[in-house]
Amino acid sequence: QNHGPYEPYRYNNPTHKVQAPISQWARESLLSYAEGSSDADRGLERLIEWAKKRERPTVIAFFGDHLPPLGPVYVETGFLKDNVAPRKEAADQMLLHHQTPLIVWSNRSGPAEDLGAVSPAFLPYHILKTAGISHPYYTGFLGQLRDRYRVIDRNLLLAPGGDATPDWSRRKEIDPAIRDFRLLQYDMMFGKRHAAPDFFPETTGKVAAHTS
Q: Per the confidence metrics, is the pTM higher than 0.90?
C-alpha cells in the first residue's frame, strides 16, 4: 500500500505535517510517504490484533525490501548525494542506506528479539525459528551461516561482531561457507538439484519440516 512513487498530494486529508528546509515538492512527497507509513503501521496493528485471537500458531514477518524511492528528497535533505544509494560503500554507510525495519512476530512468543541487521536470505531462518520449525536448509544450513554472517551482500560480508569483508567475491579465497551457500542456490535453482535429498527432502517426497 505504501510503495512508491510518492507523488505529492497522494492523500486528500493527510493527518501529518512535514517541516523541512526543502522544496515544496519534496515536502509534499515526504508527506505522502509519512501518511502511507502511518497507514501501514495501523494495518500491521490490526493484523497482529487479529492474530492474537487465533488458536492456530501464527507468525507475521513485516519488512521493507529496500529504502523508499524518495529520490530528490534524499538529495535535498542531504541524506544521499544522488537519488539512489550507492551499491558500494563502507559498512556503516551500507547499513545506513540499505537497512530497513523488520518485525518477526508470533502469537505464541511475541516479537523475535535482537534480530539486528538481516539479509533477506536469512528471513526464512528467523521465521521458521520463531515458529518452532526445524528444516535441514532453512534452519540447519542457514542457521550455521547466520552464526558466521549477519549480512551477505554481493559487495559486502558483515560478521555478527561487525567485521566487514568488502569485495569478497573478487578475492582469490572465499570462505567455504559462502562458497557452499552459492553452490547450493545455483544447484537448486539452475542445476540438477543434487542437494535436494539432503537439504530439501520435501521436494523429493519426504517430509522433513517438523515443530520442536
A: no
d(CA 56, CA 108): 9
Q: How far apart are CA 102 and CA 97, in angstroms?
A: 15
Q: Compute the distance between CA of residue 158 and CA of residue 148 in angstroms, rounded to an integer.
A: 9
CB 117 within 8 A of CB 162: no
Q: Which residues have CB under 8 Å from 195's CB, separation 6+?
A: 184, 187, 188
* pLDDT tens-place string over residues 33-42: 999 999 999 9
CB atoms within 10 A of CB 168: 18
Beta strands in 75-193 (DSSP E): 102-106, 110-111, 133-134, 151-153, 156-158, 164-166
Q: Hey, what's the cell of 73?
A: 528528497
- Scan for cell 579465497, then name that residue: 173
Only one residue has cell 521458521, namely 128
Contact 67, 8 (CB under 8 A): no
Is 157 in contact with 164 (CB distance < 8 Å)?
A: yes
Cβ contact 81:93 at 8 Å: no
User: Residue 90: helix, strand or coil by DSSP?
Assistant: coil
Q: How far apart are CA 118 and CA 129, in angstroms?
A: 14
The number of CA neighbours under 13 Å toward the Cβ of 17 is 1
Specify the 3-state DSSP secondary structure of 57: coil
pLDDT, tens digit, for every residue of 126-155?
999 999 999 999 999 999 999 999 999 999
Cα(166)–Cα(156) distance, rounded to whole angstroms? 4
